[in-house]
Design brief:
Distance between the termini: 37 Å
Strand content: 25-35%
Radius of gyration: 18 Å
Helix content: 25-40%
Largest sheet: 5 strands, mixed, barrel
CATH architecture: Alpha-Beta Barrel
Number of domains: 1
Number of helices: 6
Shape: globular
CATH topology: fumarase
CATH superfamily: Fe-S hydro-lyase, tartrate dehydratase beta-type, catalytic domain
CATH class: Alpha Beta
Order of helices and strands: EHEHEEEHEHEHEEH
Strand order of the largest sheet: 2-3-6-7-9
């Protein structure tokens, strides 16, 4: 297990060196995007419309932030992660289409998403749920916002980060998943317990 500092945009070689259990902190630009932003980005791409940001090499945060505006400037109040399974049907195509290198969220994602991460060089970085104010401390400024018409939580926010984390590599680009490992170990332990009790 390593403690690694990364700066966006992220390159494929650095991402492929990461292993599950590594601890990462991120600096540079981070985008927030939940299901509505994923849907719009993919639709725009298919329709040949311009995407307002460059997702290649990006870190995409599954987050519906709470923002406060003072004059013309937005300030981040809280940045709690959204349960990533909401994006399961969208993330494989998003990774393939846009070349995102890191997905940040909570709860893990599906096997098809893990397969896409392996194919295209991306990782899933788990952040602690229920710590929205703590997460916001790693964000130094709000650089921009796009698609605010779909609502504050769903909009595409452009954030500047400095030492954002700690983040745990929970799914890596070699096809390994901490979530699958825990599930497999749990099933094994339940089976062993049942055998000891004579239930199977």
């Amino acid at each position: 297990m390593k403690d690694i500092k990364l700066t966006t945009p992220l390159d494929e070689d650095s991402i492929r060196e990461l292993k599950i259990g590594d601890v990462v902190s991120l600096s540079g630009t981070i985008f927030t995007a939940r299901d509505e932003a994923h849907i719009r980005a993919l639709e725009y791409k298919k329709e040949g419309k311009d995407i307002p940001v460059e997702f290649t090499g990006s870190a995409v945060f599954h987050c519906g932030p709470i923002m406060q505006k003072e004059g013309d400037t937005w300030h981040l109040v809280a940045a709690g992660p959204t349960t990533s399974s909401r994006m399961n049907s969208l993330e494989p195509e998003f990774i393939k289409t846009f070349g995102a290198r890191a997905i940040i969220g909570k709860g893990g994602m599906s096997r098809p998403t893990l397969d896409a991460m392996k194919s295209y060089g991306c990782v899933y970085l788990a952040i602690t749920g229920g710590a929205a104010l703590l997460a916001a401390k790693g964000i130094t400024s709000v650089k921009d916002v796009h698609w605010l018409d779909i609502g504050m939580p769903e909009a595409l926010w452009v954030l500047e980060a400095e030492g954002f984390g700690p983040l745990i590599v929970a799914m890596d680009s070699q096809g390994n998943s901490l979530y699958e490992n825990v599930e497999s170990e749990t099933k094994h332990n339940i089976k062993m317990a049942k055998q000891k009790l004579g239930l199977i």
